[in-house]
Amino acid sequence: MHLPVAQTLFIGVSTKMYMGYARSLTWLEELVAEVDARPALAAGRVVPFVIPSFPVLPEAARLIAGTPMVLGAQNCGWSDGPWTGEVAPSMLSELGVGLVEIGHAERRRHFAEDEATIALKVGAAVDVGLTPLLCVGESELMAPDVAAETVYGQINAAVSGDWSLAGQLVVAYEPVWAIGAPEPASAEYVSRVAGHLRSGLARHGLGGIPIIYGGSAKPGLLPQLEAVSGLFLGRFAHDAANFGKVLDEALSFCTADALKTASKGH
Questions:
Q1: In the chain, where are the structural domains located?
Q2: Is 238 tagged catalytic?
Q3: Nearest-5° Cα angle at 11, 181 to 51
Q4: Catalytic residue among 34, 104, 138, 196
Q5: Quick one: pLDDT at residue 264?
Q6: What fold is seen in the domain 9-259?
Q7: Which of 34, 113, 174, 249 is catalytic?
Q8: Is-catalytic flag, 104?
Q9: CB contact at 8 A, 97 and 104
Q10: What is the spatial distance between Cα 19 and Cα 22, in angstroms, rounded to a whole number?
């Protein structure tokens, strides 16, 4: 594995709606213990993040305070105002949220979120200082260069063609065809898509923005990937110990990469 220009790995997990309130808090305490057991995370080369359900956010912010963990939200509205049932990005910011997931395949498919809606949310999130975690991915298995072009188009739509805005994203690449499939996308396929995507983004000076992979990610995958900036984990990491295992892989790689870089300087 080779780190992209950003030289930072992001390791995160969302609970979706799999946990109740009490279980969520217990799990967060377990995650904090895993993070606290790894003081090397304080260096900032590996950034852990956690995305619980909306009602959990205030207590989650309290539980992870003072740790290197970044708090995320699973969605946001596109503004404050008369939008019954939505959550304004400004309120998320008040609660200590730093990252907000936008454009997940489930939102696109089951809640009819189109590119225009996603673009409104991305702009609103950035306006209040939140980092959009933009979820993108091709719907069908295709050649890696074609898949990358599809994803490139989704990013372009999400920022309404304003590539300066794209520099404020973390991109979560999740091939939709692999979600729930018997076998996840192969490391080679993911690496090739990410590589082609970086080449496209480099035309705008953005070849080094964070691109993380999500989809049946487990220990052993991260070291196999090229041009990828980390992992977005699912239910596998609802066991906090598994989250810790992936953090260890990320830390191990960053340590080895730092030593390699230092040796080249002598």
A1: 9-259
A2: no
A3: 80
A4: 104
A5: 55
A6: TIM Barrel (3.20.20)
A7: 174
A8: yes
A9: no
A10: 8
